[in-house]
Amino acid sequence: MNIVFRLETPDDYYAVEEMTRETFWSFWEEDEDRTICDEHMLVHKLRNVDALVPELNCVAELDGRIVGHIIYTRSWIEADDGNKYETLTFGPLTVMPEYQSKGIGRALMRHTFDEAKRLGYRAVLIFGHPDYYPRVGFRRAAEFGLTTSDGSVFDAFMVYLLYDGALDGIHGKYHIDPVYMQLTEEETLEYDKRFPPKKAHILTPIDVLLDRLEPDAASAIRELGFNSIDILKSRSERDIASLPGMDAKAVETVRTVMKEHKFPWGES
Q: Phi/psi at 88 (nearest 5 deg)?
């Protein structure tokens, strides 16, 4: 494939948002309260925040058609030594559904990581698929003594070093622009009127998995408090395998059920 990378322009806005909407329409939300995806609304808002890094707001084109997009904002680590260290975060990272699993997402990351390094940034921190991103070089933030702003640590919180030793001696809490936490259902529903009507995504009930697990394993999954299997994408295979009652057979059942419902999950 002859992929062309270039900066996003205002002429691209609608196409990028429509692609983002289509890609994330069935994406889970942790509180499971929203009725439609809001990633396209997030992209719209990110373009107008001071933390935006326009030099890294990039689209991927194939035969003149936009098939991918990545957008970055400045973030920072509030370190234990009292200093603040600037970092980057990206997201949403979008690849048009029919072009996924072709390396376009990885190529977008590689291209922008090289540019971010040239611009003098030290690291990229994200909240992402905990079994996918380690394949492209991300490491768990806990390895670096980093937590979220509220002190949490989990496998989906990850770090990519733009050069060796970039975070040596830097430990503390990670902060992102408030815009990520300020999306509302009301404004998203209103903004969504700009796009063709689309049926709301219906979450897949957790019972489709529980019914196929042995009692101990089913109990372990039930204790997580999830109402649907959609949110399991946020938990790594390592994390699920460590639950009491989960054995190799149970983990394979989780992988199978997730695959049946077209949810990527697990290390393989």
A: -125, 155
Predicted TM-score (pTM) of this structure: 0.91
Q: Is 164 helix (H, G, I), strand (E, B) or coil?
A: coil
Which class for 148: exposed (0-12), middle (13-18), buried (19 or more C-beta within 10 A)?
A: middle
CA 212/CA 260 separation, integer angstroms: 13
* Three-state secondary structure call for residue 167: coil
Neighbours of 211 (CB within 10 A): 10
Question: Tokens 């990850």 belong to which residue?
Answer: 158
Residue 190 lies in a domain: no
Task: Looking at the structure, tell me whether residues 256 and 152 fall in a common domain.
Answer: no
Give tens-digit pLDDT for 44-103: 999 999 999 999 999 999 999 999 999 999 999 999 999 999 999 999 999 999 999 899
Question: How many domains would you assign to the chain?
Answer: 2
